[in-house]
Amino acid sequence: MKIVIRDDDLNHDFSIDHFKYYERIWENIPITFFCVPSIDFEWFKYLEVCEKIGPGCSSDFIVQKMNWYKISKKISNNSILLKYLKDKIGRGIISIGLHGSKHYQISKNKIIKNNFAFGAEYFFKKFSVSKILADKNYLEKFSDKVKWFAPPQNLISTENALNIFKAKMNLSTDLKILKDPRLFFKINLKDLFNILYWKFIKKIRFYYPFVINILGQKLVPVMRFNDQTDYNFLYNQILYLSKNGGECVVINTHLSAFELKSKNNKTVGNNFIALIELLRKHDQFKFIKINDL
Ligand SMILES: [Zn+2]
Fold first, then answer.
1. pTM exceeds 0.85 for this model
2. Domains in the chain and their CATH numbers?
3. How far is the CA of 160 from the centre of ligand 1 (A)?
């Protein structure tokens, strides 16, 4: 079974220190970083604000608490980070995907659990094919081909999902978007039967471990890895999927969260490495970059 590590949010404000956990594994385990091309606020202040105010807050309240940049910061403006990434891309140990455009929206009174409304720009705003392509082309200036899109908070409207496919990009996100008939009836027929078989005959509901072909592009769901994750539980879930004939799993994590403490009192980063070490012991798992799905 193929395993993809999808790490989200990489942007201008990250420094080389943030990669210390990945430096322990990425010579053997490729990582796909889903980048935010440009940001308008101090990223780590944003994470701090969200942490401090707790869940259930409206977007406009978060807006007031942030430190906003006068001029947008593009990831390529951070020359040290850029050089570091280019070296790893050149050596083929990491690859790049597109994660939104600026990772925020400020429409008033929008509330989604865990303050996700603020980040959910692809859910609340419209993105044209040309804007999607402009962001993709920008990342390709320093990367290999950017073929995959992952929406911030894994939230995307049907209109934007259709535009992602029109831009000839593949999509990694929760499969609940398929509830919309405009997408559901565009699923490749063979995949549709497999989805129904997996869910209703095999009765495996927690993850669908296959690529779905839709509108000439690919769609894959995500398994989350964060400070709430019990890595042994996730390990057993992945083993179970593999035993049942699953073909691929996308593990979605955030290097910005790697220093947080998990429930077992270890850091998220150490738990993540522990999961990878457990999986590596099995020959049936092959770690790949998302472009190889
Ligand atoms: Zn994100």
1. yes
2. 2-292 (3.20.20.370)
3. 16
